[in-house]
Amino acid sequence: MASLAPASSHGALMDGIYRRQKHIYDATRKFYLFGRDGLIDSLDARPGCTVLEIACGTGRNLDRIGQVWPGSRLHGLDISSEMLSIAQKRLPSDCKLACGDAMDFDAQRLFGQSAFDRIVISYAVSMIPRWEATLEHACHLLAPGGSLHVVDFGDCNGLPKPLRTGLMAWLRSFHVSPRGNLLSRMSSLATENNLAIRTRRGRYGYFRRVTLSR
Fold it and tell me: Strands across the sheet with 96-99, in order?
């Protein structure tokens, strides 16, 4: 089910982080990765719609997408073979999984198609070194009428300063760096690629959801 590629240095780093965490990842992340289910509920991924999640991890989101939007055709990419080992066990056999770098993967080679109706990136932009290149690549993979859906940490400016400072320090220990210019970069991509943009700021600025539509 998964197409494996040689591990990059970032892939090796992610494998090192998740080799043990993968077994408790979903049980712990549900307490602070907010906004994911709202994104999924708004996908409008009807039967036959091709959905690609970039940095799909354990397959938690793809599993829920399949439940909320039955009949959608699921695809998942991740740089960590450790995380994909969990996704393989969780997802149905018709879900196509592949190991690759989010910044420049060859969709045609890995999945047999070069464009997707829906592309999802959930709490991964803050962990991908060249995240801007990843967003640009994702825009180029949108099919006519397709949309890119991103959710990640926001500025958290609504939180008390000590709590916000502690949260950011804790996230850094997991190699997570919230992107303060996420919205401005996606606005630029919308202009450059003639895409419509919609955005939602979560409570206290904890998360930011952005959708680009062709």
Answer: 2-3, 96-99, 73-78, 50-54, 116-122, 142-153, 207-213, 196-201
Backbone φ/ψ region at 3: left (φ over 0), alpha (ψ -120 to 50), beta: beta
Residue 77: name the closest of 33, 128, 31, 144 by CA.
128
- Tell me the backbone φ, ψ of residue 153, rounded to 5 degrees: -60, 140
Q: Using alpha carbons only, what angle is made at residue 195 by residues 194 and 199, rounded to the nearest 5 degrees?
A: 145
Provide the pLDDT confidence category of residue 174 given band limits of 50, 70 and 90: confident
CB 78 within 8 A of CB 134: no
Does residue 81 register a pLDDT over 50? yes
| Cα atoms in the 13 Å half-sphere on the side-chain side of 168 | 15
Reduce the DSSP state of residue 57 to 3 states and report it: coil
pLDDT digits (tens, 9 = 90+) for 46-61: 999 999 999 999 999 9
| DSSP conformation class of 203 | G
| Spatial CA neighbour of 193 closest among 129, 128, 139 | 139
Place of tokens 């979560």: 202
User: DSSP labels for 119-143?
Assistant: EEEES-GGG-TTHHHHHHHHHHTEE
Query: What six digits make up the tokens of 27?
Result: 């049980």
Predicted TM-score (pTM) of the model is 0.88
Rounded CA gap, 166 and 24, in Å? 22
Residues facing residue 52 across a β-bridge? 75, 119
Residue 6: per-residue pLDDT: 43
